[in-house]
Amino acid sequence: MFAMAGEPLTVPPRRPGAKSRRPRVERTLSRDAIVAAALRVIDEEGVDAVTMRRIGQELGTGGASLYAHIDGKDELLELVFDHVAGEIPVITPDPRRWQEQLKDYLRQWHAILRSHRDLAKIGLGRVPIGPNSLVGMECMLAVMRAGKLDDAVIGYGADLLAAYVTGSAYEGSIWMSGKAATPEAGEAYHRELETYFSSLPADRFPTLISLIPALMGDPVDDADVRFEFGLDVLLRGLVGRSKR
Amino acid sequence: MFAMAGEPLTVPPRRPGAKSRRPRVERTLSRDAIVAAALRVIDEEGVDAVTMRRIGQELGTGGASLYAHIDGKDELLELVFDHVAGEIPVITPDPRRWQEQLKDYLRQWHAILRSHRDLAKIGLGRVPIGPNSLVGMECMLAVMRAGKLDDAVIGYGADLLAAYVTGSAYEGSIWMSGKAATPEAGEAYHRELETYFSSLPADRFPTLISLIPALMGDPVDDADVRFEFGLDVLLRGLVGRSKR
DNA sequence: ACCGTTCCACGAACATCGTTCGCTGTCAAC
DNA sequence: GTTGACAGCGAACGATGTTCGTGGAACGGT
Description:
Order of helices and strands of chain A: HHHHHHHHHHH
Oligomer: homodimer
Low-confidence stretches of chain A: 1-26
Mean pLDDT of chain A: 86
Strand content of chain A: under 5%
């Protein structure tokens, strides 16, 4: 499983014993090409459409050919996730405006995840330890330390914020999940859910029913407002927890 | 997909056209028995071990027999999730100690999820709309309203809190995930991760390295402290956001 | 210029998954 | 007593991740 542990920071060679006596000629396939193809499929059809055979076909071959460059599907998805993590620009911490810096960073991270369909799903059950993810983590921690937060708050808080960004991006992608990934289907599901809530017995769910407007905003317009709300709540809580 | 929308609150009959001319004699199989068997398998081997054939075998038959009572694996998992959601005791809101009530409720939810291995994984990509989940949601909303939070804060906040509980329970179960679900393997992975972080170049990851003790506590002892921290941060932020 | 080694590419195959199909036996309704 | 609906269930289908064995091309040594 965790084959990356202890390996150097740069993308590690797959076969440790391969001394590569040969100067590694450029063949048609490569790790980067495979990752790019997988990302292309994710952008077009979502993470569930990523299949070894599908990626191979995208590169003009079969699924078995990928195993020469990649250990398996798990590692492939991890590579894709870390690849897009590299798209986030790094930040040099400025103690005077660290909060807005941190928020901006998380906003960008969230936006990038959302721009790749349900890519966030990959990061849900994982501890991201790819090189780019680590750079992002270091960046986040540095900004939080510039804010003079307690070490314990930074340690727990960074995890909390990272989980929030990933989870929020994934939840936002659920509305267009499943097979019919069209925005119309998402809105249809949204409406169906709203009518379902409205049909509940008012005597047993009084609070729920009275809060339907607050619980369900427009699924697309509301996504950013919702994310911003969580961001504000989390940072408010973190600084409140740290001071004193 | 969302076949439950619009159906009555009690567990809906699977086949809408089945008028049940026969008074539904008690056969060996039943929805409840299937759900119980699935939960048993989850407790013993985790969610990934839940297979139609495995559940059938658990009940002394094959996998195909389940489809007479259940639409498919997706619905089965949803039923299991909602079943354990029924274990959480409901709360009558007390405005004077609503915060501790809310915390206690989320603590119990978290504990129940954690007690069923990686069951939380099921709830990650779903909007829980089962009957028991709805009762829990109503309960949560009522307590928050007793705290006189703004409606908007309740609406967004309830989602935030629910996602936190589920996500936190799942993350906690990752340490013992994979195949070798033993606690020793979890600790081994934890140690491996720590040495990996320690091996990073100190000139490029100064903050990360200096925060290793804060980032990684003991995986088991630390889980509750970590959860409590997030709870405190979230509630702090929510009330701060609501007051003015 | 030749050969041998190395290793990528790839079709076929294996195990496993969710699900469907068609048959059988049984029990309730007429 | 007859009939018909339906739970139960083995077999099968399509798709998945992964492994195996073969082939062939490119490089280094001679």
